[in-house]
Amino acid sequence: MRGGRHIAAVSGASFSLAAGECLALVGESGCGKSVLASALLGLLPGNAETAGSARLADGLDLLAADERTLARTVRGRRVGLVPQSPAAHLTPVRTVRAHLEETVRELVSRPGGSGRKAWLRAAAEAAAERAAFPASHLDRYPHQLSGGLAQRAATALALVGDAPLLLADEPTTGLDRDLVHRTVDELRAHTRDAGRALLLITHDLAAAQRIADTVAVMYAGRIVELTPADRFFGEPGPRHPYARGLLAALPERTFAPIPGSPPELGALPAGCAFAARCPRADERCAVRPDLTDGVACHHA
């Protein structure tokens, strides 16, 4: 709810994600991607409302779970999160090492015969290495980190519990291309190679191409295309005009940005939300298309 009005930030989103698979959720800022991730972990504002279901493999419905269940048995243990704004999720009075050691202590069982202090230190350093976080910066505080280092610290924390499902919200923000590749490869090892699932929320289509099995394109709070990654990035390519526009805007392609801006979520048109920016729009677009056979477009 915003200003006394109900705003449908996400509507009708439906997909499945199997163990060992990565689904990349892509789209412009403000389309609802991060809202979806927050809803799955019960992290929406108190005045937010959710409907529908989001079930883990063991049957637990995340949208119906109470805060006690989410806090004690879900967050970090069954569902990990790399947050979009990592600096805001790090305690300012604790070093990165302290964050990692506390998370290890909470989520990982200590092997028998191992000294607790030495084990915590080694486990924290191993987690940092997985996320390419430099050991020389482990004793720094969050305000002493660059945006890229804060991002890698958040990724390290999310990987500690080896949760069966990982939600990674813009995990490559602020990283140079080499570190993007390393981060994406580590996420791929965490999921595909270890039989875990990954929901990757990203603007970085190159990162999505490197890791995703399936691509879901979101626009104005709705999924408008859901398709295998090899089809999306290869031939025959995406079918929705918006999805085709996202690819065309890449520098290595035609570098042709989509004209105009997305509509406000509180003032969506009755028909297709992309019609005002779409070169193929006609009178049929006055009726909102349903997601049919993986695409929500009258022209697909």
How many E-type strands?
Answer: 6
Which structural category do the helix and sheet elements fall into?
alpha/beta
The number of helical runs is: 9
So, CATH architecture of one domain? Answer: 3-Layer(aba) Sandwich
Order of helices and strands: EHHEHHHEHEHEEHH
Shape: globular
> How many angstroms does the end-to-end distance come to?
33 Å
Return residue spans where pLDDT drops below 50 for at least 5 consecutive residues.
Answer: none
Helix content: 25-40%
Beta-strand level of the residues, as a percent range? Answer: 5-15%
CATH superfamily of one domain: P-loop containing nucleotide triphosphate hydrolases
- If you average the pLDDT, what whole number results? 92
Strand order of the largest sheet: 2-3-4-1-5-6
Please report the first level of CATH classification, the CATH class of one domain: Alpha Beta
CATH topology annotation of one domain: Rossmann fold
* Main beta sheet strand tally, sense and closure: 6 strands, mixed
Q: What is the C-alpha radius of gyration, as a whole number of Å?
A: 20 Å
How would you characterize the overall build of this protein?
This protein is 30% helix and 11% strand. Helix 4 packs across helix 5. It starts with 21 loop residues before the first strand and ends in a 52-residue tail after the last helix. The chain has a domain at 22-92 and 163-286: Rossmann fold, CATH 3.40.50.300. With 300 residues, it is of the alpha/beta class. The chain has nine helices and six strands; from the N terminus they run βααβαααβαβαββαα.
